[in-house]
Amino acid sequence: MAKNIQAIRGMNDYLPVDTAVWQRIEQTLKQVLASYGYSEIRTPIVEQTPLFKRAIGEVTDVVEKEMYTFDDRNGESLTLRPEGTASCVRAGIEHGLLYNQEQRLWYIGPMFRYERPQKGRYRQFHQIGAEVFGLQGPDIDAELIMMTARWWKSLGIADHVRLELNSIGSLEARASYRDALVAFLEQHKEVLDEDCKRRMYSNPLRVLDSKNPDVQQLLNDAPVLGDYLDADSREHFDGLCQLLDAAGIAYTVNQRLVRGLDYYNRTVFEWVTSSLGAQGTVCAGGRYDGLVEQLGGRATPAVGFAMGLERLVLLVQAVNPEFEPTRIVDVYVIASGAGVQSAAMQLAEKLRDADPSLKLMTNFGGGNFKKQFARADKWGARVALVLGEEEVANNQVVIKDLRNGEQQKLEQHEAAATLAAMLKQTAAI
Ligand code: ATP
Ligand code: MG
């Protein structure tokens, strides 16, 4: 027998039981985005490699070792997108959306990173993210964070995530902090591991989020970024903190939070959870006022975040037992007898005409009533419509509430209204 071909390691199939969960979650997330006036943008999943190198930075985990890069048939270097911000900025510049304008955008889709697959970390994963262009005040940073807080509330996970916040200041402030940090690290080289030693000169701020406990211990005595902030960045950050305080959003300032991508400045934040083991960052973002110009556009302030959907799904399932995936079937149509199948299909069509949101499945493949009721249960239907030869002859139908077993016989033209009332009732329970 031929050997089965399997999916690529770290890239998942999402089966109907999974997509029912994903759909409900995505619907909730999109509703909240819409309630703040955000519009969707869709960009290709492949871009020219230099876009990511320039945007994300050469000395970052993503660009150094995680990108799926290949030459196309013309020898042009392409990369499967590892994140969404660079593409949004590229598209915004290309279509003239950014200069002198305000944009509130969101995207959703697969991202690709060559990482070691484990729980909450995959090679193809999905992000939903938002990007705001043209606004520089801390008020929009605060509103973005408030929007994410609303997500947690509407998904029932608010008690399981906490907000970490920092300001990494301007490029110049970071440069002078960098010098101070390198000078400190040079005096303590013996504590640094290979990774940190390499980073110390290429991208020293990344040493701050080393997972090595000895390095973390050492950093307790290191200079702190907050002491090097420029006055404007400090004021911006104070403004953000005040707005979050006023909105009742709790946060901790984490001076070592610097984020892994080079384009950030000023505000950086992460929503983290302790409920998922090592992969604890659910949502992360910040301000990137320099990126549009860096990619060839006119200077445009910008702020955004991205959330990993796999981690969100894991979290919702781990901590919210009341979460309900989308239902596939509300009503199951049961038909038995000569010529009844055709009548059942016609009745089903009429009911879909009457209420396009109805989720209605007609039995196929025959079977006695008992077998068909068993299928109705298997699909999770709340109501069964039952047709036999006698009902068809009299233009009637039996409606059975599958939760309490009550049933009644109706004229077919009354079915739509009765169904609507029954489903509303069960939805309220
Ligand atoms: P981490 O520190 O976990 O590697 P990151 O800093 O690389 O995360 P970002 O680039 O900021 O992550 O991406 C934002 C979010 O996307 C993360 O917080 C996480 O939820 C999700 N994410 C990132 N990489 C992966 C991955 N390989 N698999 C699943 N989700 C991911
Ligand atoms: Mg990473």
UniProtKB/TrEMBL annotation:
Residues 1-325 form the Aminoacyl-transfer RNA synthetases class-II family profile domain. The keyword ATP-binding applies. It comes from the Bacteria. It catalyses: tRNA(His) + L-histidine + ATP = L-histidyl-tRNA(His) + AMP + diphosphate + H(+). Its main location: cytoplasm. Its EC number is 6.1.1.21. GO terms for molecular function: histidine-tRNA ligase activity. Homodimer. This is Histidine--tRNA ligase.
